[in-house]
Amino acid sequence: MPQRRVDVADDTFVGAAPERIRASLTDERWLDGVWPHLQRTVVRDRGVKGVRWTVTGQVEGDMEVWIEPFWDGAIVHHYLRGTATAGAPRDVTTRHTLRWKRAVHALKDALERTEEPAAGRAG
After folding, report:
1. pTM of this prediction?
2. Angstrom distances, CA of residue 38 to CA of 63, 78, 80
3. CA distances from 91 to 1, 53, 123 (A)
């Protein structure tokens, strides 16, 4: 049976300080809720720039969240590259993407509600 490739690339602007966005990536309960179908092992902790993991579970491969400062917030880049495992649902890529989009938009909403206006920005 041929291996099914999984490639996810997503970019979401969050109007909050990169440090505040990065704090969510240290919350294991939040991460487990976003990706219950994956077991993560940190390969590289990039501090405020994000985290890279190897993953197993429904997908075996590499995953990353990269936080790129942009204007008065940051672009949160998310990547997943690998192969679906034998027990993965046929639509594992779609399910993963939808979980991520729900999570990152909930995070965006929460952080943007509480973000202080940046210096020089109309509040």
Report:
1. 0.89
2. 10, 15, 11
3. 17, 22, 43
CATH number of the domain within which 15 lies: 3.30.530.20
Q: How many angstroms separate the CA atoms of 60 and 89, rounded? A: 14
Q: Give the end-to-end CA distance of the chain in Å, rounded to a whole number.
A: 57
Is 9 part of any domain? yes
Q: Is residue 50 part of a domain?
A: yes
Question: Which residues constitute the domain of residue 51?
Answer: 5-114
Question: Could you report the per-residue pLDDT of 70-112, keeping only the tens digit for each?
Answer: 999 999 999 999 999 999 999 999 999 999 999 999 999 999 9
- Is residue 22 exposed (0-12), middle (13-18) or buried (19+ Cβ within 10 Å)? buried
